[in-house]
Amino acid sequence: MRKGTLKWDDLRVFLAVVREGRLQSAGKLLGLDPTTAGRRIAALETALGQRLFERTADGYVPTEAGRELVAPAQAMEAQAAALLGAATGKAEGLSGTVRINAPDGVTNYLLVDACEALVRDNPDLQVQVVAVPRVFSMSQGEADLTITVSPPTTGRLTVRKIADYRLHLYARADLVAAVGPVRTMEDLRGVRGIGYISDMVFDRELDYYSMIGREGEPALSSNSLITQIRWCLSGYGICILPEFIGRRHAELVELLADDIRLTRSFYLVLHQKDARDDRINRMADVVVRWVRDALTP
């Protein structure tokens, strides 16, 4: 291939490596062996005269030149899908891989149905959900969509508010029955607290244990909301949980509803380069719609 000539097949491999981070998984996605995928990347780098990836122990990380190529490559991907739809007479579907990063409570309780709907309606789409307590680097291609509880204030990002949600104090019903009438927090002084590890809270919007009038660390603490839920469901203590989680579990009862009622928000974050990508925007619309519906009692 002479220098300066770009091939769409090479760009498809480039996008797959950006999304997957490794040649093996990118090749598997496209039906190629890692050696062939590597040759495609090398050919593209030769054609452009620039190094597109840093090869690290953690995989392939886009260089500045690689990051600049993502948006035009995605635009070509969208155009190719549109041309295919026009040629076959079929409505354009979504294809490729989308990676969604969100806190574990969101992935387990709000995104399950949204992801199934995406792949059901788009058979050529692969959805990856990363449930980790941190915001992925959008500019490095670690995630296409990120859901957070605080809008980021730095970076070339597009932020869209999804919805507000409420949190309440919960405990298992038999634990409450053993305690007796609960009229104030003082009535719960002998009950263990459950919450986040204070120095590992990934977002200060989630640091609300002190708001219920308790000092120090909870007796049981974890950086995972799912672990906190399991403790609460086992009757090991009281825990502040999102309302959309509490109402899913009949064995939990809400405590001090008039006194402890917090409001937080979910935000959908995209990199600015992806905000112009019709494919990513369509996926974002589906995720927002399903999350909003799931938050509705």
From TrEMBL:
Gene3D superfamilies the record matches: 3.40.190.290, Winged helix-like DNA-binding domain superfamily/Winged helix DNA-binding domain
SUPFAM superfamilies to which the protein is assigned, alphabetical: Periplasmic binding protein-like II, Winged helix' DNA-binding domain
One record GO biological process: DNA-templated transcription
Annotated keywords: DNA-binding, Transcription, Transcription regulation
HTH lysR-type domain sequence ranges: 6-63
One Pfam family from the record: LysR_substrate
UniProt GO MF annotations: DNA-binding transcription factor activity; sequence-specific DNA binding
Cross-referenced PANTHER family: HTH-TYPE TRANSCRIPTIONAL REGULATOR, TRANSCRIPTIONAL REGULATORY PROTEIN
Recorded family membership: Belongs to the LysR transcriptional regulatory family.
Annotated protein name in UniProt: DNA-binding transcriptional LysR family regulator
Provenance organism: Amaricoccus macauensis
